[in-house]
Amino acid sequence: MASSHLYFVAPFRTLRSSPSLPKSPRFPLHVSRSSHLLTHKTLAFSTVIRGASGSGRSSWRAMAEKGKGKVVVFDSEEDLSVSLAKYTADLADKFSKEKGSFTVVLSGGSLIKSLRKLVETPYVDAVDWSTWHVFWVDERVVPKDHDDSNYKLAFAGFLSKVPIHPGKVYAINDALPAEGAADDYETCLKHLVKSNVISVSAATGVPKFDLMLLGMGPDGHVASLFPGHPLVKEKEKWVTFIKDSPKPPPERITFTFPVINSSANIALVVCGAGKAGPVNAASGNGQNSDPLPVQMVSPEGELVWFLDKDAASKL
Questions:
Q1: Sequence-distant (≥ 6) Cβ neighbours of residue 200 within 8 angstroms
Q2: pLDDT of amino acid 285
Q3: In angstroms, rounded to a whole number, what is the distance separating the alpha carbons of residues 134 and 197?
Q4: Are the CB atoms for 246 and 218 separated by under 8 Å?
Q5: Which of 190, 262, 284, 300 has the most CB atoms in a 10 Å sphere around its CB?
Q6: Which of 152, 265, 257, 270 is nearest to 215 (CA)?
Q7: Which residues in the chain land under pLDDT 70?
Q8: Contact predicate 81/114, CB 8 Å
């Protein structure tokens, strides 16, 4: 395998070993041979280090750390998707062995596209899909066959291609209005907590999902938690609703930050130059007086940013 380049972006600190990033990953990593260095001007305070390759070595092409967060910068979205698949498969393997189940939360947008390598060799045949329980961090209150449905997007690009039991895929009740759909989804979560399908945070008492896969909007929103909206301050509910989303469709349900931040692992997957500003703000370099929603993502466990070079261009 050709060697790759690792970009350690200031002001982040160098990653050390972490229990969620196995030293001897179960699944092999295949990295594209194409590599385009970021310019010295873009990464004026960066250190460029030649990466290592070979069996049993780290799967990451770039890593850095800021507090609990680690940043991984890829030359392309294709390279990002390769590493994201491996990261997800390794966590699924870890939790499945530890507790017999794997609870994963999906978002909409381009996230499903970035998961496409999971439905290919070696993962589609090697992953123990029987242990998976699938949830959504937010959903548009539309029928499941509507083009705006996150469920439809996930089904077409991912769920229909892997043997996850349909009874372990927890979509919203789209026959209910937004408020009712949010209450119903929270009731579902409470039932699964009581039956020990979903773990509980010892610190907060709210659901603790094994992995939450988040995207981010160009305005810095995550889930359906938008800049300046009162819902970003919601602390009591696990699932709430919005009827005035600044991004259509207006009616949605969404996990709140207490649930998001109780996660054991969060992957923030961000691609494109149009999102470079919020990424820069989240790194601590922004000038916003009020934090963007993405800046409020701070899980109890591990946070890993998966960025393509365009999303990282302002770091």
A1: 193, 206, 207, 208
A2: 72
A3: 11
A4: no
A5: 262
A6: 270
A7: 1-68, 286-288
A8: yes
